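Same chain as my last thread, 171 residues:
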Amino acid sequence: MEGYSRSSHAKYRCEYHFVWVPKYRYHVLVKEIRPRLREILTELCEWLDITIIEGAICSDHVHMYLSVPPKYSPSHVMKILKGKSAERLRDGFPELGKKYWGMHIWARGYFVSTVGINSIVIQNYVKEQAEEQIREEQLRLWKDDSERHCPKSCRFLKPLTRSVVVYVCLA
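reply #2:
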């Protein structure tokens, strides 16, 4: 029985796909906050004996594909991950207090789905989410930079690929 985990009295395969967002969907999971959040979530999962199969931290949401022991409900996992990570992020980054008053960084809700036979589809989806956001950010930064240097004299050319756009400067 490959792919199953075991505890002292159970053999299990309880895999969940979780998604949650910062309050007001602010893009705050950037710069030094992103790697610190990754560390915090990794520590919390190790503490709870949860295996991280795949994960992606985007600027405005978090995806995690986890294998959870049967003693924990999905709501308990989210309570720990969101609660403890918010506490540690507030302690490490006081500037978050300017955007979020009180004790809340994460929005109240979350998405959870059980993962069955199509786990590869979920893994690829989570990877593609992170890659798509990187492509969008690079395109936005490149576009912002080109507008700063030659805003009106650049002409749009046909895209080379789905994610690469070419501008030609006529100045």
